[in-house]
Amino acid sequence: MTDGPLSRFAAALSRVAERWLPDAFVFALFATVVVFVAGLAIGVPAGDLVSAWGNGLPDLLAFAMQMSLVIVTGYVVATARPVRRAIDALARVPQDPRVAVATVAAFAMLSSWLNWGFSLVFSAVLARSIARELARRGRKVDYRALAASSLLGLGSIWAQGLSGSAALQMATPSALPPKIRAIIAHGGAIPDGLVGFQHTVFLWQSLVSVAIEIVVVTLVMWLAAPSEATARDAASLGIALDDEDPDAPDARPTTPGEKMEHSPILTLAMVALGGAYLARVFSGGLTTLTVNTINLALLLVGMLLHWTPARLMRAVREAVPATWGVILQFPFYAGIAGMIATTRLNDRIAHLFVSVSSPRSFPALMAAYSAVLGIFVPSGGSKWIIEAPYVIAAAHELRVHIGWVVACYDLGEAVANLVQPFWMLPVLALLGLRARDVMGYTFLVFLVLLPLVLVLTTLLGATLLYPL
What we know:
Blueprint: H1 5-20, H2 24-41, H3 46-56, H4 61-78, H5 81-91, H6 97-114, H7 116-136, H8 143-150, H9 165-171, H10 178-185, H11 204-224, H12 256-261, H13 265-282, H14 291-306, H15 309-319, H16 324-343, H17 345-355, H18 362-376, H19 384-398, H20 402-416, H21 425-431, H22 435-461
């Protein structure tokens, strides 16, 4: 099979990205300069911008630790022996390289609806296993396309799923300050200012948009994947795919200390303790899902699957290097967020959108706004606290379905991840690639998905009534 037009276009984008795109850290530095200059352009004193940047640097340290644990716990679960066997079995299913790329894309999106952190790492491990399996059969699959496919859940539907940040905050009583709850409540239009999942994640309009996105993006990646004649496999990129055999026996413990490390007794005790805690927490329903509870749940599952402290420690030790990008870059994005919040750049942009909006066009414009801001501040739900007051106030003023506005905001935030390399870092570290290696493909999906999102938010939004 020869390369089609879309595949050739993706290859051209990849060549441009490989030549011109810097490392993701340079992207963060460049974004810092852009926001600083924009602040000066609207009249903010340079000293105020410097102070806002410096004061903002530590604001996401706790969040950075949470995100690092998402990476580590996801890796721990995905590399446990039972899960690795399941992944290896799944990796043997695709027989054709293009089908393999589409399979990873579909799996990444479906699993990200359940939980983006698990999907991010699990999909990367699946992509690597498929590449290894096809290489053993003498088939050549483009490793960059596989890696890009593993990122597409985070660049499409994750925020419309059960771990969507804004939806979780709107549904969780303690997640937003009382002043913001009052704005959402709007004098009793929305009781207690709470918007449950039934008005965001589980809207039939949201589920329909998710299904359409999955079909379209999977088809795009199938068409964009290079043929075997032009594919660049892992070997041609200098990447070794020989991972540890999940069935290899552990070293035999000889000392009392080593026997404790290889005993499941303490593991089972911790799993029982953590499981009891989560059972109490989750008795409150889906609204109790937070990054912290997700991390704890994944850690407990990982402990149980690895069975002994020795195996768990080894998995964590292998996972930690993949967190370096988060540790290095999060402070700089926090500084950017600090300057944006201080200068009210986001406020000005939002009011500009409102001034040219109608009830029909507001959802699409809000999705576009969220995508633009997400390129500069890829901080997940933390920026929703800044934006929710004027976004929700504008929705009330225009009489637009509040839950749909949240869903549209989440849609835009996810699409930004296709051109903002920040969240690609954990996967790329596991796969041995750089952002420039995959962004030709993710940018292609961005070009297709963004107009599709704008159409869906407009058409489906017309079927909903204010306020919920």
